[in-house]
Design a protein that fits this description.
By secondary structure, the chain is an alpha+beta fold. It is built from six helices and nine strands; from the N terminus they run αβββααβαβαββββα. The radius of gyration is 17 Å and the shape is globular.
Length: 202
């Protein structure tokens, strides 16, 4: 009984650690790595999704919002590297995702479909989606097909190629607005939603 209580408390503490942003995080700077994206058409690439299907972003009509993040953590597991929090833009993938989760109904009311994106595999992503009750699909670019086709900004950490935090709004397969760099990550969903309201239409 005591052990079960301890485990529940420890799990709650770990979850809070993933879901919060510590003070003093380094702020990412605009390195120009996303300047080419506005106006680009999305390539026809099928990406595995956490709902069990595959999504070709280029084939989706109407308004689509994509937010990409480096790597979500898991409860009880260490960070990819000890200095993860000191990498500009690395910390905050769970708050980033939760922001879009919490505003999902508002995006839907504007006729926008939301997708998360990372280079983690689908199995890893699905654990996060289920744990955080994420109502939209998260797409895996584990093979870096979309990353390379769009020349998305990346960073290499511990031998892994990770996406830098970025978001975009696309309409009928073309990118119309880009958010980069993204900081703080927990405010990005609100920023994208506000921009979507000013763009109008669906």
């Amino acid at each position: 009984m005591v052990l079960d209580v301890h485990r529940r408390v420890q799990t709650a503490m770990n979850e809070r650690s993933l879901s919060t942003l510590p003070d003093g995080l380094p702020v990412p700077v605009d390195d120009g790595a996303a300047a080419h994206l506005p106006g680009m058409r999305l390539p026809h690439i099928a990406l595995a999704a956490t709902d069990g299907g595959a999504v070709d972003l280029a084939a989706l009509s109407g308004t689509v919002v994509v937010f990409a993040y480096p790597r979500t953590g898991r409860i009880g597991e260490p960070s990819l590297v000890d200095d993860w929090d000191q990498i500009p833009g690395a910390r905050g993938c769970t708050p980033h995702t939760c922001g879009f989760r919490d505003l999902h109904a508002e995006f839907g009311a504007l006729g926008a479909r939301v997708f998360g994106l990372s280079t983690q595999d689908t199995e890893y992503q699905r654990e996060m989606v289920e744990r955080l009750h994420v109502p939209f699909a998260v797409l895996s670019d584990a093979e870096l097909a979309l990353t390379h086709a769009l020349h998305l900004p990346t960073m290499d950490v511990a031998g892994q190629t990770l996406l830098k935090r970025i978001a975009w709004i696309a309409r009928d397969g073309a990118i119309v607005r880009v958010f980069y760099p993204v900081f703080p990550p927990d405010k990005n969903a609100g920023e994208v939603l506000a921009a979507l309201c000013t763009l109008g239409g669906s």
